[in-house]
Amino acid sequence: MSPEKIPQLICPAGSLPALKAAVDNGADAVYLGYKNDTNARNFAGLNFDDKAMREGMRYAQSRGRHVLLAINTFAQPGREADWQRAVDGAADLGVDAAILADVGLLDYAARRHPDLRLHLSVQGSATSYEAVNFAQREFGVRRAVLPRVLTLAQVENVIRNTTVEIEVFGFGSLCVMNEGRCWLSSYATGESPNTVGACSPAKYVKWEKSPGQMTTRLNGILIDRFDDNEAAGYPTLCKGRFEVNRETYYALEEPTSLNVLEILPEIARIGVAAIKVEGRQRSPAYVAQVTKNMRSALDALARDGEQYRISPAWQSALSKVAEGSQATLGAYNRPWR
Hints:
Layout: E1 8-12, H1 16-24, E2 29-32, H2 50-61, E3 66-71, H3 80-93, E4 97-100, H4 103-112, E5 118-120, H5 129-139, E6 143-145, H6 152-160, E7 165-173, H7 183-189, E8 205-210, E9 213-218, E10 221-227, E11 242-244, E12 247-249, E13 257-259, H8 264-269, E14 274-277, H9 284-304, H10 312-319, E15 327-328
Parallel strand pairs: 1-2, 1-14, 2-3, 3-4, 4-5, 5-6, 6-7, 7-14, 13-15
Antiparallel strand pairs: 7-13, 8-9, 9-10, 11-12
């Protein structure tokens, strides 16, 4: 398969060390956010102030890599100027693209900074080519990141009916929601990734240790109980275990990671422009591991074409950083429609 048909590899940078890990291990582009609630991974200790962002941009761009700035939460009433300043900052910094979700902010960016390349965030929740084409027509959007709820056939249908570049997720945590509509977190805490930039914000999380087990709660709601020999996951509402008809199990979503190595040839064949790795809240070691192995797989696809085969070493390495040590093709290969 010719290299020009191989999707770009877009990797997460929740910190400067993570950015460098992505660049050093073969990312074509990194995506990052400000250290505030304009960014949908607004966790304490993560993200970039102006100094770190400029250093990160120098590091990436001097090595021929792109920097994408996510301003992908929704402007809150009375504070629209905070999000507008973030867009102004993106233009002043000279980022390669700004990733936006809010329609009002897209309009602002298109009018105020016509030379700023715009990408439609997954938080924009565009699941059809009509939505993607609307964003192109009204705001000049050049790329759209599709939510992780579409089958591969549905992704192909979007690509066939738009000239906008399409980016899809290829590795990392999944979300039970249609991104951009994070109702569970809003219900449990009054806050969500769309508003404050964090799902299950840490201030609502409580760990309670008792003999033989750990209990986790989110804003007082019991999310899960773990025996001493079980790994305790971060208590997000969708990934807790619930009692349903006298059975206790992960009723909404199991802790598992998307991994598309198996279907990389199909993803390339249908014309996907870029594959995104989830995980700005994860460590630099995670970023390095995932980037290195996804890069190896994409390079093998470019080199081997129809002879492409998955290396057991890639799968082994990725399984070590997968959520719950499990992998899935998610909605790409779901048996229902």
